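Running co-folding for calcium ion.
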Amino acid sequence: MENLNRRQFLSLAIGGTAAALTAAGGCGSGPVAASAGTFRLGGQTSAARTNAPPNIVLIVSDDQGYADASCYDHPKEVSTPNIDRLARQGVRLTNAYASAYVCAPTRAGLLTGRYQQRFGFYTGGDSRIGLPLSEITIADLLKKQGYATAVIGKWHVGIQPQYRPLKRGFDEFYGFLGHGAHDYFDLSITDDYTSIYSNEKPINDTGYLTRNLARHAVSFIERNRSRPFFLYLPFSAVHWPLQAPPEYIKRFNTGNKDRDIYLAMLACMDEAIGDVLNALKRNGADENTLVIFFSDNGGAKRNFANNGVLRDYKQSVYEGGIRVPFIVSWPAKLPKAAVCDEPVISLDVMPTILSAAGAFAPNDRIYDGKNMLPVLRGQTKKPLHKALFFCDGSDQWAVRAGKWKLLSRKGSLELYNLDIDIGETNNLASKEPDLLKKLKELYNKWRAQMGEQISRPKKRANKTKKNRSKQK
Ligand SMILES: [Ca+2]
C-alpha cells in the first residue's frame, strides 16, 4: 500500500483548498482564499525559541462546516478573522479528519489518542455510559507532568460521577456533561446532563454560553500564567440549537435566516477564540503555546453549515462528515502561515501534545495517533499513516489510504480517488476490483482489532455470531 500514500506536501503559503487537494504532487499554493489575501509567505520557526515546556490550548468547534472558516475556501458570507489569525501563525491542514462523524466518539478518540472503537466507543449513544475507566486521558498524563489542566465547554464522554472531568485528569471544569447540544441562553440548573457545572457543582448561570466559555478560558490562562497549563476548550458552538445574540445576527443577511443565525454563532465563537489568543499574548505566552484547533466532525445540515466542495454532512462517511478545518500553531517551534496536505486524524492530537510537552504515554496499550510535529515542520516526506479508518459499528465505514478512499454505505461499496475527485462523484468500485479488494481487506483487518460496543455488547455479539454462521 506504500505507493498509495504519496501525498505529503508542505508549503509555506496559504493556498486554495481545492487546488491543494486535487493537484497530485502539488503544494498548498493554489488560488489564495479571498480573506487570506493579506497572508504573507511564512518564515521559518520563530527566533523566540524556548525549551521551556509549552502551554497547550486545544480548541474544538462543534459541527463546523469545512467551508465555514475563511482561511479555507469559503462562501463570501463567512468571516473568521481569529481562526485565520491562528492559521497565519501556524500550519493549516487540508486533509485533516475527525475520527468520527459525530461528536462523542471523536472526543473519546481525541482524549486517548486511540481509535475509540478499540474500547467500544462507536456512537453518540456510547457517551451515556462514558469513556471506559481503563482509558488514560491526555489530561491524566499532562497533570503528572506538572501541568495545570482544565476543560471548559462540552464534555460528552460520561455523566456518572466516576466519568466526570475531575476524575479524568482535569483540575477544573466549567461546562456541561452531555448530551451533544445545550441551550445557549438557558443556563439554569436542570438535570445531570444539561446543568452547567462549576467543577462538580451544578450552578445557575446566566449569559450566552459561548461567551461564558471564553471568559472562563481567559481566567484559567490568567491564573496559571506562571506554570505550564493545558486548556481543553470544546465549544458547543456551532452545534444546534440555532441561537445567537441579536446584535450578532443583525450582521448577516444571506437571505436564509437560519444560516444568518449559524453565522452569528460562528462569529461569536471566532471572537471567543480571539479572546483566548489575546490572553496568551497579554501574558507573554503566545510564542510558546501549542494551539490546536479543529471541528469535531463535518458541518451539520441541520445547522445550515457549509462543507464547500465536500459531499454530504455530519453523520456520513463521505468527506463532508469527517474532513474538517484543522490548524496547529506553535510560533516558537513550527512554521508560520504554512499549509500541509498530509492526511492526519484527530487521534494524532494526543501524541503531538505529549511530544511537545516532553511527556510519555504508557507502553501497555496500542496508540493509533502519531506525533504530527515532524510532518508539520516539513522534516519528513514519509506518510504519517498507512491508512485511516472510520466506523460507527454498523455497515457504514470508510478507509482512506493515500489518495484512495473506499467506503461502505447502505450495503454497497464505493471507491474514490480523492486526488482528482474530492467531491466523491465518480465511483470507481467496478473499475478497480483489485484495489477495492485490497482496501476492504485492510479495513477488515483493522475492524477485527476493535472492541465490542460498550452500549450494545450483546447485539454486536449476536450479529457476529450470525455473520459467522452465514460465512459457514
Ligand atoms: Ca459535533
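Result summary
Residues 257-282 form the longest helix (26 residues).
The pocket of calcium ion is lined by residues 62-63, 103, 239, 296-297 (CB under 6 Å).
Job closed.
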